[in-house]
Amino acid sequence: MVHSHSLRKQEILRKKLPISLLFKNGKSVKGDFLRIVYASLQLDNACFQPFPSILFAVSKKTVHSAVGRNKIKRMMREAYRHEKSVLKSREVGQHEGSADGMLCIAFLYMGRRKTSPGLEAFREEIRGLLQGMILS
pTM for this one? Predict the structure, then answer.
């Protein structure tokens, strides 16, 4: 049984080719402390997924400590897990006019604050960015 608020292993974007294509061809939406890059990619060996592939990244320049980077990535994953229902309000296959593309999203922490935000701030930011992505 899969819960609606789960983040499965298959949803995480790990392969080099889709990541490089995402950053090369993707559109970007900025928030206060997060930026998302998204694109609908048509890969040869990709099977259709009813959910987008997700990438979470925190730069070493932004957060020097590995413990801090991991904490921020955990909070981003948790916030996305709760807010991914925003994406269900639209058809993934109809994104940017492609019927068979795989939607890929990268969440990048920009860290424009001295302290890292809390979970509720991440949830609000991700909800706003996903809604901005849907409208664009």
Answer: 0.84
